[in-house]
Amino acid sequence: MQEYLRFAPQNDVIFILFVIIFAVICGLKYIFPQQYASMFSLPQFSEIRDNSPLYPILSYLLFTLLLSIILYTQTDATAYPGINSHALPWIFAGGILLYFLLKNFVQAILLGILGEWSKYNSILHLKSWVKTWRIIGLFLLGLLLVYSPFRTDILIIITTAFLLIMMLLEFIILYRTHIKTVSFNNYYFILYLCALEILPILVVFHFWRDWYF
Predict the structure, then answer these.
(1) CB atoms within 10 A of CB 82
(2) pLDDT band at residue 22, thresholds of 50, 70 and 90?
(3) Which of 33, 174, 200, 212 is least surrounded, with the fewest CB atoms within 10 Å of its CB?
(4) Which residues in 29-56 are b (16+ Cβ under 10 Å) and which e?
(5) Rg of the chain's alpha carbons, rounded to an integer?
(6) Rounded CA gap, 35 and 50, in Å?
(7) What distance in Å separates the CA atoms of residue 97 and residue 103, rounded to the nearest whole number?
(8) What number of other Cβ atoms are within 10 A of residue 119's Cβ?
(9) Are the CB atoms for 120 and 111 separated by under 8 Å?
(10) DSSP alpha helices (H): ranges in 148-198?
(11) Mean pLDDT across the chain
(12) Are 126 and 171 in contact (CB under 8 A)?
């Protein structure tokens, strides 16, 4: 395993993005006090009756931006000579956002086919609880990755492990609350997991393995 320096230049743009993200998190805490007050208790969070999609949407956008910053700061821009290095974070953000849109679209279609469309808002609400923890965790890990003197490869492993744990936690929560109550063909369920849950992780791991191992 090799120890790499941060690839991205430590310019003001990254710092400004972190400040904006921190301000938005504080703003969300002010606008949605119930969500943050109950973030340590899933049952209490589940009891919140808020049909507005604003909090889940903002959670997705914040998570996308944070993950894009981390990917950008750990990407060797010279490996993509035809792309402006300053455009890379927005390309990453667009790809991640497109993935989330596709994933949620497929989930909505499947629930509609199964006659369980009424559960979609509840599923989105529970996902936003996990997203809240992902955002806080990625914000702290992102600061460490960009500005700390700690070994980057170790921090990448910790970040990857954190994201995998959060993904597993989200799946367990959704399975216990919704999925196991839905009549679902196991073949299509496994196909969904492989295509939209496992495959993207393997693709990201493939690129990170080439850079860090």
Answers:
(1) 4
(2) very high
(3) 33
(4) eeebeebbebeeeeeebeeeeeeeeebb
(5) 18
(6) 10
(7) 10
(8) 17
(9) yes
(10) 152-177, 186-193
(11) 77
(12) no
Over the stretch 144-177, which tens digit does the pLDDT of each residue have? 988 888 888 888 889 888 988 888 888 787 777 6
Alpha helices in the chain (DSSP H): 12-31, 33-37, 42-46, 54-73, 88-113, 120-147, 152-177, 186-193, 199-212
At 120 the pLDDT is: 72
The type of residue at 169 is L
Q: Which long-range contacts (C-beta less than 8 Å, at least 24 apart) are formed by 31-38?
A: 35/128, 35/129, 35/132, 36/132
Whether 180 shows a pLDDT value over 90: the answer reads: no
Retrieve residue 32's tokens.
């949605």
Alpha-carbon distance of 96 to 103, in angstroms, equals 10
Give CA separation, 205 vs 13, 64, 201, 202, 211, in Å. Answer: 26, 17, 6, 5, 10
Kindly indicate the confidence band of residue 137, based on its pLDDT and cuts at 50, 70 and 90. very high
Residue 135: Cβ-neighbour burial (10 angstroms; 0-12, 13-18, 19+) = buried
DSSP state of 185: -
Q: How many CB atoms lie within 10 A of CB 154?
A: 12
